[in-house]
Amino acid sequence: MPRTSLSAPEARRIALAAQGLGSARATDPGPRSIAATIRRMGVLQIDSVNVFARSHYLPLYSRLGAYEPAALDRLVMRRATPARPARFVEYLAHEAAFMPVEDWPLWGFRRREVRDRAGRWGGWAADPGNASVVDRVRAELADRGPLRPAEVESVGRAARGGPWWDWDHVKRALEFLWASGEVAIAGRQGFERVYALAEQVLPSEVIGRDAPYDVSVRELVLRAARASGVATIADLNDYFRLRDQRAVKVAVAELVDAGELSPVAVEGWADQAGRPLPAWIHRSARLPRAIDRAVVLTPFDPVVWFRDRAERLFDFHYRIEIYVPQAQRRFGYYSLPVLVDDRVVGRVDLKADRAASALRVQSAWWEPHAAGGHAAERIADELRRAADWQGLERVTVSRWGDATDHLAAALAAERHAHPRESGR
Q1: What's the DSSP call for residue 253?
Q2: Where are the beta strands (DSSP E) in 76-148?
Q3: Ramachandran angles phi, psi of 170, nearest 5°
Q4: Are strands 96-100 and 44-45 parallel, antiparallel or unpaired?
Q5: How far apart are CA 296 and CA 309, in angstroms?
């Protein structure tokens, strides 16, 4: 779509459409829809917090509706073997994330960074004492095949009559071998990773075929641009956590020359000095006339995971408060942004109380532009759908937050104790 300028609402609608939030949810989403949605996003970030639902289940729910979480588990967490290799694999393709297995060669540069001691674990692994642990863990995987960290430790104890290394060293060694590419995740047992040598998990056509750095960056920038619709250099740099704005700028210039991207001015997009921020639009970007959605997002959804972009697009500032002392929390333990049409209108802190079969709205807050509560009925409908998706029979609402009375009225919901009174 050849455009030289965009209004702020147009930029929001383009961004949401690029993320698969510009059309109606699927009527019966199955494995194909799940796989296609992950591929459209490029990555599905993993997070272990499980208050309402683990974070990686939510982007698919936001886009597809009430899909079967077990279908995602079978797709991304089943045990992979050489005879039945993984279709998706975990790697640091943002933070830890599921990605298509054929993308493995694009991340050779990151694996090299780890091996060259520039990565998170490289310095630790270079220490001679730790290097011996890495060698022994590698040998254990070669001898025994895929293992959980606890199984590596128990094998060491059984073979040597004692704890010849501790769990932390085993885990660090496994994480180094994974980040450096010698090891891949063979699946998960429960939510615990199962580690294996890469050749035990990955198809042979992706092993040892790392793309050159400039080719990887250009392809990842292209994918980030497609998934963003319209983006700045910082947006494109962050989407796959490339951490190299110079290389991103080179890739953008090449993609403009190739006709994949076009420069565009976006209303209100400016730096701290008030200067307009350069932006680019992908050639496949679509501008819907309107967005008709009411969905709960995870803070690790690509729509909002880059906080600078969330502020530019939605005037929405977010901070995760899990590690903030309870008395100092502003919005709640793990509040989720709420999107209605093309605006983030509020945030809700949800908890699945499975023993009581209840979805607890622990807190709920409006963004300033939505403070009148006009979106309460639509959010109430979405909360009912979310409860049903999680197999919960009812929704209850606390009294913490300026949106709780509106939502409780729209839901005709039972009220429950304020989370600061009952604890978390």
Answers
A1: H
A2: 88-92, 96-100
A3: -60, -50
A4: antiparallel
A5: 18
- From the list 206, 203, 182, the residue with the least C-alpha distance to 83 is 203
Amino acid making up residue 3: R
Contact indicator for 146, 178 with CB cutoff of 8 Å: no
> Is residue 341 packed enough to be buried (19+ CB in 10 Å), middle (13-18) or exposed (0-12)?
middle
Checking DSSP bridges between strand 394-397 and strand 358-366, what pairing results, if any?
parallel
Q: How far apart are CA 380 and CA 169, in angstroms?
A: 47
Q: What CA–CA distance (Å, rounded) separates 401 from 423?
A: 16
Q: 295 pairs with which residues across the strands?
A: 339
Q: Helix or strand or coil: residue 265?
A: strand
Residue 240: other Cβ atoms inside 10 A: 27
Name the token pair of 392.
């919960």
pLDDT digits (tens, 9 = 90+) for 216-270: 999 999 999 999 999 999 999 999 999 999 999 999 999 999 999 999 999 999 9
Strands 192-197 and 96-100: unpaired
Amino acid identity of 373?
G
CA dihedral over 152, 154, 160, 164, signed as positive or negative: positive
- Residue pair 390/356 in contact by the 8 Å Cβ criterion: no
Chain segment 2-23, per-residue pLDDT in tens? 689 999 999 999 999 999 999 8
Q: Quote the CA–CA distance of 103 and 233 in Å, as a whole number.
A: 22
Which residues lie below 8 Å from residue 137, measured CB to CB, with a gap of 6+? Answer: 152, 170, 173, 174, 177
- CA–CA–CA angle 177, 205, 97 (5° rounding): 45
Asked whether residue 160 carries a pLDDT value surpassing 80, the answer given is no
Residues 220-238 as b or e (16 or more Cβ within 10 Å = b): bbbbbbbbbbbbbbbbbbb
- Beta-strand ranges (E) seen in 229-323 are 230-231, 261-266, 279-282, 294-296
DSSP 8-state code for residue 190:
T
* The three-state (H, E, C) secondary structure of 7-46, written as one string: CHHHHHHHHHHHCCCCCCCCCCCCHHHHHHHHHHHCCEEC
Q: List all residues 6 or more positions away from 93 whose beta carbon is below 8 Å from its beta carbon.
A: 42, 43, 99, 103, 107, 240, 241
CB 394 within 8 A of CB 359: yes
- Number of Cβ within 10 Å of residue 113's Cβ equals 18
Q: Distance between CA 381 and CA 385 in Å, rounded?
A: 6
